[in-house]
Amino acid sequence: MPASAALTEVKLSIEVNLGQDDKGKDINKKTKFGDVRLDILDDDFYAAGESISGLLKGTLTRIQKEESSLVTNLE
After folding, report:
1. Residue 34 contacts residue 56 (beta carbons within 8 Å)
2. What are the pLDDT digits (tens) for 20-64?
3. Measured between alpha carbons, how far is 19 from 28 in angstroms, rounded to an integer?
4. Where are the domains of the chain?
5. Strand 59-73 relative to strand 3-20: parallel, antiparallel, unpaired?
6. DSSP H or E segment with residue 52
7. Please, which residues have CB within 8 angstroms of residue 34's CB and are 6 or more apart in sequence?
8. Using 50, 70 and 90 to split pLDDT, how confident is the model at 67?
9. Own/partner pairs for 25-33, CB < 8 Å, 24+ apart?
10. Nearest Cα to Cα of residue 29 among 44, 11, 17
11. How high is the pLDDT of residue 54?
């Protein structure tokens, strides 16, 4: 059965480290941004993540690209 996947959504997730708690465990905070252009290049995506992280408290630890696709049957 042939199928096709079409990209429907891209989200930007930025994780920053806010330090450590009193037990020495890292405190991380993740912030997500939706409605990212579907055709964004990976270099531009990363640059946007770095720029936005500069506005957040903490040290950047991760930039994640979350993609969703709709898979349909071609028959």
Report:
1. no
2. 999 999 999 999 999 999 999 999 999 999 999 999 999 999 999
3. 8
4. 7-72
5. antiparallel
6. helix 42-53
7. 9, 11
8. very high
9. 28/61, 29/56, 29/58, 31/56, 32/66
10. 17
11. 95
Q: How far is CA 53 from CA 2, 34, 73, in A?
A: 41, 15, 40
d(CA 66, CA 13): 7
Rounded to the nearest 10 degrees, how much is the dihedral formed by the CA atoms of 5, 46, 51, 10? 10
Is a pLDDT exceeding 90 seen at residue 69? yes
Sheet containing strand 59-73, edge to edge, reads 26-33, 3-20, 59-73
Residue 1 has pLDDT above 90, yes or no: no
